[in-house]
Task: inverse folding
């Protein structure tokens, strides 16, 4: 246990030293926001999936429940209430292979929603919840709201591993000298609204499939409560999400997961690819990959998790207390349109709004616009009213 | 465009004999040589402790040196492409290994000859350019192999027609509404056509690589230019007209050499700022010029008057397409792919432009914002709104600009003039009255 702790401390130390080194090396942070961002994204991958790397799971043995690193450091409790599945952070940190360090709140919402009135058998191996679902839901939401109010959607731009995946795809496209495509404005806005539809639909589906609420009929074979497949169908979004197959495939590729285990347990047409990956998963991942090759940050435009973080930071009443903001000074803006063009999720508001707070729920706070704005002090990022980054005359080296 | 045909049959015929052309050219040439020498002399006198580098710019102010270089470059097979408006993307010309020169003419006498084709009511830039072409006077206009004209105002529109009698003319048409998607795609396709034309003339293909090199070259010039402008923010380390001359010269000089010299000037000025070695007393009223383009040499009468007047004023900023707007905004490229570079280029020449030929729902608000920002950042104490007679677009925007600047408590002075030298005395009185008023305001 102590050696595990040491390993963790070493990893965390290396990463923080890396960030420090970059901050020192890049004297002017605004010039290199993107390189710093990519570094933080890469550095957070091992942090997010720490449970798998140093955790005691030893996948794919089954059921090898033990203590995840988080369990050792801060325990599986939040304010004295048991919360074993991992901290809810609004990034696509898949629960399935991640090993309980950080967990996707969408999964938690689905898992805890039904039955919310009683404690019971957990999703995870051998985990038995001692608290009712609503209590866990409250903890999940409080964590998400806290994070969203603190950092808004900066998680999407700076930490999310799927965002990193899309950024890398963009780099690959760029290496071939191909230009990105521009999504029609209508479609872009439509996708933005679709995020909330996705959340609603999958929450309802989760209850229906989990409870067999429609006349007690099993919509999918072998989905009786407590059954092997049950836990999977009651998290229907995860059967669609592109992150799960990506995580699992990466795990298989680095040998942290047994491929036979991943691809076995085929149960009928729905689960044709296997237990950890469904064919829908793979299709969506393929589509998201193609989309990310054509458009920048394709998935971010319709990501329900981003929608959740946006909901709790960019809409009233949360908007009033959000700390991280993008500000624009009207008079310094020449409307040159650079901010609009360089924006990965193609947001127009930074360009269109007159001035003041220009952050929107679609903004992933990647700060590319601040980096590329050539006018001193026109765009700035503020945290609790204090300016962190400011646009500058980047012509000066 | 089938320009062979159009050269044969002139659309705008002017009756002038070859002898008269010769005579006029020689006499006017001698006259403006004198004017340039006189103006340079006055500028030298006005700033006795000037840095050594300024001598380079004074030398380039005389067109003959650059003309020789252009003739030399031409004999080496290089193409020279002239442009009349700041809307022409210099980067494309540079990427095709051609030489860009701005050909708008600032000479007074040719304007009178231009009257033979164009009515007197038209702005003197157009008349002068037409007149210079008739008698073959302007060295850059004569040397250029093709012309890029932008259909911004009415004068420029017809100018391109008249010029097509003499040279291949490529017109680019900026949309009058600039912040809609369709305008941008239209403008981008205009530039793509221009690119094809340039490639055809020069025989050089504009690739992503060459475009990137050109953009980076102009970036260097942008950087130095902005440095120079920022130096004028605090204390008057450089006389306004000298800074304006430096900018003017970038329009016909070799951009690389200009960058080098201007960089030297900036370094020198930075040192002077530290030593508090100023070009004029720090309490001199700080004036900003806005309005119609001021073009070297004949048009220099206004900067000369302001900075030689008693009480003296200093021009600290300007919003002129022949000044600040020429090099201030950089091309912001996101990804160095050809597509994105080209879109960035198109946006650079359309979106930040504050030309009054644009309008939008909010009116030409960009110009108002730009002016307000200038006034605040450069601590401008008075604005001279300078227009040519016949420059409708600038004249019509006056009330709006005045209103916006009134809110900042900055007085605006409307000054309409021409290339003519006859009204110097009258303008001098008006400028001095304005400057006196500014001086009084400062003292209060």
Result:
């Amino acid at each position: 246990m102590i050696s595990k702790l040491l390993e963790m401390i070493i990893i965390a130390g290396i990463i923080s030293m890396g960030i420090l080194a970059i901050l020192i090396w890049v004297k002017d942070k605004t010039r290199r926001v993107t390189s710093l961002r990519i570094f933080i994204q890469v550095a957070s991958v091992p942090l997010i999936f720490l449970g798998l790397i140093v955790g005691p799971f030893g996948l794919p043995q089954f059921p090898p429940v033990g203590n995840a690193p988080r369990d050792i450091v801060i325990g599986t409790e939040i304010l004295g209430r048991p919360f074993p599945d991992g901290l809810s952070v609004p990034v696509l940190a898949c629960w399935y292979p991640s090993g309980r360090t950080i967990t996707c709140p969408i999964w938690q919402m689905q898992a805890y929603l039904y039955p919310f009135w009683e404690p019971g058998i957990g999703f995870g191996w051998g985990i038995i919840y001692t608290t009712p679902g609503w209590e866990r839901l409250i903890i999940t939401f409080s964590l998400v709201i806290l994070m969203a109010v603190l950092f808004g959607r900066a998680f999407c731009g700076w930490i999310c591993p799927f965002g990193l995946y899309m950024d890398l795809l963009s780099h690959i496209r760029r290496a071939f000298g191909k230009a990105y495509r521009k999504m029609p404005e209508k479609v872009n806005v439509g996708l933005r609204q679709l995020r909330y539809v996705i959340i609603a639909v999958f929450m309802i589906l989760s209850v229906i499939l989990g409870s067999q609420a429609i006349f007690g009929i099993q919509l999918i074979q072998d989905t009786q409560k407590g059954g092997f497949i049950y836990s999977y169908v009651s998290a229907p979004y995860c059967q669609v999400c592109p992150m799960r197959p990506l995580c699992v495939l990466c795990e298989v590729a680095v040998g942290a997961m047994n491929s036979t285990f991943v691809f076995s347990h085929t149960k009928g047409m729905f689960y044709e690819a296997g237990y950890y990956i469904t064919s829908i998963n793979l299709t969506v991942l393929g589509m998201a990959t193609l989309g990310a090759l054509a458009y920048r940050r394709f998935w971010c435009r319709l990501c329900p998790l981003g929608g959740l973080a946006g909901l709790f930071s960019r809409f009233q009443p949360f908007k009033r207390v959000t700390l991280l903001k993008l500000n624009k000074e009207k008079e310094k803006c020449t409307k040159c349109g650079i901010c609009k063009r360089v924006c990965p999720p193609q947001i127009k508001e930074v360009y269109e709004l007159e001035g003041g707070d220009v952050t929107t729920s679609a903004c992933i706070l990647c700060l590319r616009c601040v980096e590329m704005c050539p006018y001193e002090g026109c765009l700035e990022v503020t945290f609790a009213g204090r300016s962190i980054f400011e646009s500058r005359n980047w012509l000066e080296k | 465009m089938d320009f062979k045909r159009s050269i044969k049959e002139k659309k705008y015929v002017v009756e002038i004999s070859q002898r008269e052309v010769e005579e006029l050219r020689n006499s006017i040439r001698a006259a403006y040589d004198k004017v340039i020498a006189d103006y340079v002399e006055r500028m030298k006198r006005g700033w006795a402790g000037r840095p050594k580098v300024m001598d380079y710019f004074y030398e380039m102010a005389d067109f003959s040196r650059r003309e020789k270089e252009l003739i030399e470059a031409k004999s080496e097979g290089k193409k020279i492409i002239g442009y009349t408006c700041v809307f022409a993307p210099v980067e494309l010309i540079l990427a095709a290994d051609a030489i860009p020169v701005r050909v708008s003419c600032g000479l007074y006498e040719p304007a009178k000859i231009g009257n033979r084709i164009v009515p007197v009511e038209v702005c003197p830039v157009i008349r002068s350019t037409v007149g210079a072409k008739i008698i073959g006077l302007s060295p850059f206009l004569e040397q250029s192999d093709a012309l890029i004209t932008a259909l911004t105002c009415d004068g420029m529109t017809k100018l391109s027609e008249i010029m097509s009698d003499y040279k291949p003319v490529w017109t680019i048409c900026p949309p009058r509404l600039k912040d809609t998607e369709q305008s941008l795609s239209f403008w981008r396709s205009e530039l793509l056509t221009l690119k094809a034309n340039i490639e055809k003339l020069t025989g050089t293909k504009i690739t992503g690589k060459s475009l990137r090199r050109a953009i980076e070259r102009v970036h260097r010039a942008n950087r130095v230019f902005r440095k120079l402008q920022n130096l004028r923010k605090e204390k008057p380390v450089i006389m306004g007209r000298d800074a304006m001359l430096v900018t003017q010269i970038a329009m016909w000089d070799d951009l690389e050499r200009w960058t080098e010299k201007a960089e030297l000037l900036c370094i020198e000025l930075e040192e002077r700022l530290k030593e508090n070695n100023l070009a004029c007393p720090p309490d001199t009223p700080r004036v900003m010029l806005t309005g119609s383009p001021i073009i070297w040499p004949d048009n220099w009468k206004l900067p000369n008057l302001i900075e030689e007047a008693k009480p003296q004023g200093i021009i600290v900023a300007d919003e002129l397409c022949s000044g600040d707007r020429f090099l201030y905004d950089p091309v912001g490229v996101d990804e160095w792919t050809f597509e994105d570079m080209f879109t960035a280029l198109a946006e650079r020449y359309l979106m930040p432009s504050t030309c009054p030929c644009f309008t939008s729902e909010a009116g030409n608000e960009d110009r108002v914002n730009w002016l307000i920002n200038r006034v605040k950042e450069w601590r401008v104490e008075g604005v001279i709104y300078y227009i040519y007679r016949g420059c409708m677009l600038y004249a019509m925007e006056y009330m709006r600009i005045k209103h916006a600047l009134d809110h900042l408590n900055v007085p605006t002075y409307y000054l309409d003039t021409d290339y003519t030298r006859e009204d110097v005395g009258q303008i001098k009185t008006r400028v001095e009255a304005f400057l006196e008023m500014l001086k009084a305001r400062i003292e209060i």
In short: The interface with chain A takes residues 179, 181, 184, 208, 219, 222-223, 226-227, 329-330, 332, 334-340, 343-344, 347-348, 351-352, 354, 366, 369-370, 372-373, 376 of chain B (CB under 8 Å). Residues 3-443 of chain B form one domain. The radius of gyration of chain B is 21 Å. Chain B has a mean pLDDT of 90.
